[in-house]
């Protein structure tokens, strides 16, 4: 079922706006998500892979970042445009299914995806299954408690920080923290560590 909240792939060029690197500093995402000796990371809902590539740029040569999306157009665009650097691997995924074994993934990020998940529970359960103990999920999404709505999804499509925290806790993420950045506050960062 296609949700009205799902990003329209025809608008995918908007994702490649360099301004977004200021709103979502890639080094900060990497600092938050990376774990000592981690080698396998997932970007779920990677879109065009624009941010995936920038974030993965902070990873060492032994790291593999799998850029997942449910939208075939996005995955073929990533395959066409991303450098074959042996770090980022685009892959099509089925909704709410991660084709990785239990406790095999060292970190996961979701950027501008959470508000599209209707509901988020099934994907969060999969994330918990594949994440290695002590590793992190980082969620970055549009601020709901904001009057500024010139960009991004309508306010009624967004999810408040308190709702995200509640949903993460009921999915079993024990240590949920909101991170305040010195970047544009229309985004919120919500890493959750088990
Ligand atoms: C707004 S775009 C963000 C893309 C990328 N994270 C970025 O910030 O540049 C959201 C992406 O998530 C994908 N998506 C939507 N629902 C998804 C789901 N349930 N699982 C995986 N990807 C999904 C969409 O196809 C789209 O490419």
Give a concise summary.
This protein has 194 residues and is an alpha/beta fold.
Query: Order of strands across the widest beta sheet?
Result: 3-2-1-4-5-7-6
From the helix content, strand content and strand pairing, which structural class follows? alpha/beta
Low-confidence stretches: 182-194
Number of strands: 7
Shape: globular
Task: Estimate nothing, just give the exact number of structural domains.
Answer: 1
List the ions, cofactors and other small molecules found in this model: S-adenosylmethionine
C-alpha Rg, in Å?
A: 15 Å
Protein name: Methyltransferase type 11
Domain Methyltransferase type: 42-139
Pfam family, one: Methyltransf_11
InterPro entries: Methyltransf_11
What would you say this structure looks like, in words?
The chain is an alpha/beta fold and 194 residues long. It has helices at residues 20-23, 26-33, 50-56, 72-81, 121-130, 161-170, and strands at residues 40-44, 64-69, 88-92, 105-111, 131-142, 175-176, 187-193. The chain has a single domain (9-193), classed as Vaccinia Virus protein VP39 (Rossmann fold). The chain has 6 helices and 7 strands, in the order ααβαβαββαβαββ. It has a 7-stranded mixed beta sheet. It is globular and about 40 Å long. It starts with 19 loop residues before the first helix and ends with a strand. Residues 6-7, 15, 44-47, 50-51, 69-71, 74, 93, 95, 111-113, 116-117, 123 line the site of S-adenosylmethionine. Keywords: Methyltransferase, Transferase. This is Methyltransferase type 11.
